[in-house]
Amino acid sequence: MNLSQEHLSVATTCPYCGVGCGVKATPQGPQFATVAGDTAHPSNFGKLCVKGSALGETLGLEGRLLHPQVREEGKLRQASWDEALDRAAGQWRAIVDEHGPDAVALYVSGQLLTEDYYVANKLMKGYVGSANIDTNSRLCMSSAVAGHKRAFGEDLVPVNYDDLENADMIVLAGSNLAWCHPILFQRIMRAKEARPGLKLIVIDPRRTATCELADLHLPVKPGTDVWLFNGLLAYLSKSGAADPAFIANHTRGLDEALEAADISPEDVAQACKLPLDDVLAFYDAFAATAKVITGFSMGVNQSSAGTDKVNAIINCHLVTGRIGKPGMGPFSITGQPNAMGGREVGGLANMLAAHLDLDKPEHRAAVQEFWGSPRIADKPGLKAVDLFQAIESGKVKAVWVIATNPIVSLPDADQVRRALSKAELVIASDVVLGTDTNAYAHVLLPALAWGEKDGTVTNSERRISRQRTFLPAPGEARGDWKILCEFAQRLGYDGFDFAHQSEIFAEHARLSAWRNTPDALPRAFDIGTLAEIDRAGYDAMEPVQWPLGRRVFADQRFSFPDGRARFVPTAPRLPVNTAGGEYPLVLNTGRVRDQWHTMTRTGRAPKLAEHTPESFVDLHPQDALLCGVRDGELARISSQWGSMVARVRHGGGIARGSVFVPIHWNGQNASDARVGAVVNPVVDPVSGEPEFKHTPVMVDRFPVQ
Ligand code: SF4
Fold first, then answer.
1. DSSP structure class, residue 44
2. How far is the CA of 466 from the centre of ligand 1 (A)?
3. Which domain range does residue 112 map to?
4. Selection from 174, 165, 178 nearest residue 50 by Cα
5. In the predicted model, what is the mean pLDDT of residues 41-68?
6. In this structure, are 30 and 83 located in the same domain?
7. What is the mean pLDDT of residues 248-258?
8. Within-domain flag for 558
């Protein structure tokens, strides 16, 4: 970057949530910049939430990892790039030679740019020959991916942001949109101001900030969403709201789904611990409103029945034919800035690039042929929780952790610590020094941060936007795709000689249009028209939504060979571990308004710390009394997996029997505040997504006398 042009602002994208807001960044010297919302970006039209507005405060080099490091005699010391990469690649190769490709793994992040993600997947699946590459997006939206694939034959989100403004009713299930996706929430607020008839119904065990705008709040018993939506399916099919022509011409499997959903509103009210009148009010409103969107997020996905919850929601849209048209549809709202881009390139251990299927031999052959790679992974790899268990057991001996902090963020996080302490080789790429995870690295590689790196991200409405460089690369930090390519070249692989990230994007776009698969199914994910993009075109690229120029499912054709969507029977089941005995309370986890993930970035902004200065546990006052803890005291929250310490807060919209703890605080305080250490490692059997919303716990005073 020419610093004499520092008065010029650069159009880029916020690195936090999946809303994907456009940001104009104006450099103020080599380390800092001011930010403002990009009025031309169709996600936010110039608005930014508190986190986005404070992005400028999070810049600077304090705490940055600026040089490669290698561990010697137990201590990390600075090394050259050559030494660090030679050591990482040499040990990696030796492990693969001795134990096979499944003895190594990558664990990556929804923070990565699509180009980084693409190269990481190509390396593991096409060259190493293992699908042991998973991502922290497994923790956030893998149940939605699995639900979409079961219902539509492809992972597709059939709603656009402007549909929220066209809807007559919005249902938010397990989504505190006001805090977790604030700009989308503001769009709904403004739509409601303009059209007071627009109804908002919130389904959440907690009374969150989102409920302040709701016409109806349904505080369901934790884990009972399938009962509620099964009851809705049964109600809709009997109430005349069903669309017989759509069902007959565009779907399969309604009878089986109805058999599994045979429940009355009275039984729903009992199972979900809701007033019957409220259940009926929700069902009647849904039945009577054609333009309805059901938005869902972590409260649905992060469950041992997460995929079934997603399909129970989709079933209600299929039975009414409310999909593929303006103002209606099921809407998975992604948590991370590039959860969607990661999915496009096959970023999960059970997926292949370009929405192709790892379990289909013809798809594997097609991708291998496109890459010209020596091999292709022939079976799904280990999903996040299983991966770290396999590291601890010694089955996986080397792991490369990129842009994430699993010792804080994964469930049973002490197990992750044990796993990394046992691994023969831990490589970590990061932008900051001294995270809980980096302390276990044998090789530590400095990566470029937001503002320094350059590439694309895709938001919740499938809109690809550019993240652009507006600050110079500090120290010896490099882009993640570049580090991966140099590592791959040391392993002797061709196919990684990209000179610029635009070349990776163009290859990714070409693969999306690759039609050499025997089934030749139409896939909605196709950005082939961008395949010829050159560097100038890439640099100038405006936000673009796929599928290009058309609405998802507007033709009412789905991505199965017969073109029909599938109803999925969803028999309700309770969370795996239920509260009782020694652990009488249910732990729910989530975000606070002004922090992001493990706070490596937002923790630097004083303004953001003002909202919630420290970790806390929200308790109902009567439960607090029973636990012997008072408002403002420190408490220990324990499960059979681990414990943490946080400050007691009475209230927080929490119902009796539940507690809420935020996910952000790490283990580097005087007392360990990692809620991940407490969360049970139970996962959804279909998606592998952990049950972050339901761990039996006890709460007592800290320190215990
Ligand atoms: Fe960033 Fe999300 Fe806030 Fe937009 S809503 S500014 S993407 S954190």
1. T
2. 15
3. 69-140+338-545
4. 178
5. 95
6. no
7. 98
8. no
